């Protein structure tokens, strides 16, 4: 829901900031607005990918940077000094897999980039919750069954990070939602 709302906002902003050319048809103007909003979306994706790569690189032995230092400091505050693993893939016996951004014995963390400022408090969405519940299940045996799960938001507009930790009650609900969608997908696709 948040991503779709953001995309709609980009289209609206493009329409409000792009002047309509003289003698430009409404269809041509609408197409230009859509193309402008797509360019903004691509630039945001590229920035998110770059930030993610910088954080990942630092956790994999590369040089620390402003993003990774902020992330490490916040994780240390939340979970104490831990040995963090980055970008681990897994395959689950129920027929799904994934690649986890960061995990340690006591926590599973998914990094999200987002435009937010010092007074903002980014919140997770159900899609984030289901993803983390599935990741935790996929890492059972590597992380504790009661490992905390959190979305770590890195701001694309300010040098700040924010942690949104899900409750155990949330994670149980997220796992139920994920399992329901997994069963639906498997039935729809005749997956055995």
Protein architecture, described:
The protein has 192 residues and is of the alpha+beta class. It has one domain: Lambda Exonuclease, Chain A. Helices cover 51% and strands 20% of the residues. The protein is built from five helices and five strands; from the N terminus they run αααβββαββα. The chain has helices at 2-17, 26-59, 66-79, 126-138, 168-188; strands at 85-92, 96-104, 107-114, 148-155, 161-166. The chain has a five-stranded mixed beta sheet. α1 crosses α2 (26-59) and α4 packs across α5. The longest helix has 34 residues, at 26-59. The protein is globular. The protein starts with a helix and ends with a helix. The model has no long low-confidence stretch (mean pLDDT 90).
Give a nutshell description of this structure.
The chain has 192 residues and is α+β, with helices and mostly antiparallel strands.
Assembly type of the shown chains?
single chain
The average pLDDT value, as a whole number, equals 90
| Cross-sheet strand order for the largest sheet | 1-2-3-4-5
Total strand count, please? 5
How far apart, in Å, are the first and last alpha carbons? 31 Å
Approximately how much helix is present in the residues? 40-55%
Number of helices: 5
Total number of domains? 1
Structural class: alpha+beta
Uncertain residue segments: none
Which series of helices and strands comes N to C?
A: HHHEEEHEEH
Biggest sheet descriptor: 5 strands, mixed
The 3D shape can be described as globular
**Beta-strand content bin:** 15-25%
CATH hierarchy, class:
Alpha Beta
Rg (C-alpha, Å): 20 Å
**What is the CATH architecture term?**
Alpha-Beta Complex
CATH third-level topology: Lambda Exonuclease, Chain A
